[in-house]
Amino acid sequence: MSKNKYPSVSARPAKRFFVELLTRDIHVEDAILDLLDNCVDGIIRSQPKKRGDMPYEGFWANITVNHGSFEIKDNCGGIPWEEHDRAFRMGRPFSAPPKGKVATSVGVYGIGMKRAIFKMGVDAVVWTQNSKDNYLVPISPDWINTEDLWELDVFPATEKMIEDGTQITIKKLHKGISEQFAAEGFANSLLDKIENHYAMILRKGLIVTVNGIAAKPKPIEIRFAQESKSETTIRPYIFKTTLNGVQIFLAVGLRDPIPGIEEVQLKSEYAGWTVICNDRVVLYCDKSALTGWGTATIPQYHTQFIAISGVVEFYGDPRKLPTTTTKRGLEYSSSLYLQVLERMREGMSIFTDFTNKWKTREKDASAIVSPVPSLSYPQLRAEAEKLKYSKTRVGIEGEFYKPKLPLPLNNPTDIRISYVQDKKNVLRLAEELLPEDFENESDREIARKVGESSFDFAYKKLVDKK
Q1: What gap in Å lies between CA 123 and CA 125, rounded to an integer?
Q2: Tell me, what's the pLDDT at 99?
Q3: 222-401 domain in CATH 3.30.230?
C-alpha cells in the first residue's frame, strides 16, 4: 500500500475569527444583554428550586458605561470553579447540561460573555465569587493578539465580595464603542432595550440599573373578567400544551377598549404579539407577518385593531426554543413556532371579528370593556388555571379556552355618518365652527370636529326650531 503523500490539514479556529468576525454582526446593546443573560443563568444555577411568582427577587445587576470603561456587577451567585471551562471556553461542545443544571437559559453556544468582551474592548478582568471560590480571570491585549495562546491565567482574588456574584470590567474600549458610550442617549437606549427584553424577569424581581437608573418592565397586559354573571364575557382566548418537552402558553385578547374614529391616533405601542422564551422577551408587541398579521385569513394590522394584544410563552430546553443565535430574535422557520402560529391565528381571528362587529358602535363596546380589569401576565397565568378547557381536535394537540364575547344589539341607537369633502373647504368651515386654536389639531381631528359641529348646527337650525 503506497504512503499517502498528503499531510493532514488543520481545522483549528483562528482567534481572529472570535475576536473580530464573531462580533461584527451584533449590536453592542445586544452584547451587553448577553452578559445580563449570564446573570439570570447564575440565579437559576445557584437556586434551581426557586420558582414561584418572584424567583429573581433579591438579586440585582448594576451596569455602568462611560467613554473610558464598561462594568457590570451582580449578586447572582458567581461562577463555580467546576463551571469555569463552560464559562471561559470559546464555544460550547455538543454535550448535555451539567448535572443539576436547570435548562432554562437561552444560551446554547457558549459565546455570550467572550463575544461581549471582544465587542467592547481589548482589556478586561472577570472577578467572580461562588461560595468557597473567589478568583480573577484577566483577558489582556497580549492574550488577544497571540494566536497560539488559548489558556487564560487565573488568580485568587485578594478581596471578598459582600455577596456571591460576578464583576466584569472592560477598559481600553474600541474607539467606536467609546464614542457610543459617550453619546447622549446611549444609556437611555440601553435601558429601553432592557425594559423590553427583561419585562418578565424585572417583573419577577430582578433589579437592573444603568448608570444608577433602575429599569422598569414594559407592560404585558390583557383584560380578563374574573367573575361573570352572564354567558358572555370579556376574556382572552387561551391555548396551552407541552410539545417535545417545551411548555407552551398562549393568550390573546383585549388590552384596551375598541377605539372610535376619534381615538385612532392612540399609540399602537402596546398592541400586537409578545413572544417570551425562558422568561426573556424575544419579540415585543409585534404587528407584522411574523406573528400572523396579514397572513392566511388574518387582516393586516390596522389601528382598528389597536386594542388587541397577545402573548405566547415557550419554556424549556434552550436548544429547542424558536430563537435566533442572538437570543433576541424569533426564528420564524422553527417547526415548533410554525405549529403554535396556527393557534395564534385562531385566537386572533376571534378578536379581529369582534372589533369588526362593534365597528361604528365603539362607545357601546367601550362601556362593556372598560370596567373589565387589565391583568399583568403573571396574574393572567394565575387566573387561567381556574378556567375549564377543551381538548383540541385538529392540528397541534393541547387544551384551549374560547371566550363567548358579547355581540352588539341589532337596533343600535347610534349611526356613523361618513363623507369626503375638499380639504380647503373643510378648513374654511373649521374657521367658522371651531375655536381659534384648532390649527394645532391633526387633520383627522379637525375633520371629526367639523363633522360633529356642522351636524349639530344643521340639526338645531332645521330640526330644533320646529
Answers
A1: 7
A2: 44
A3: yes
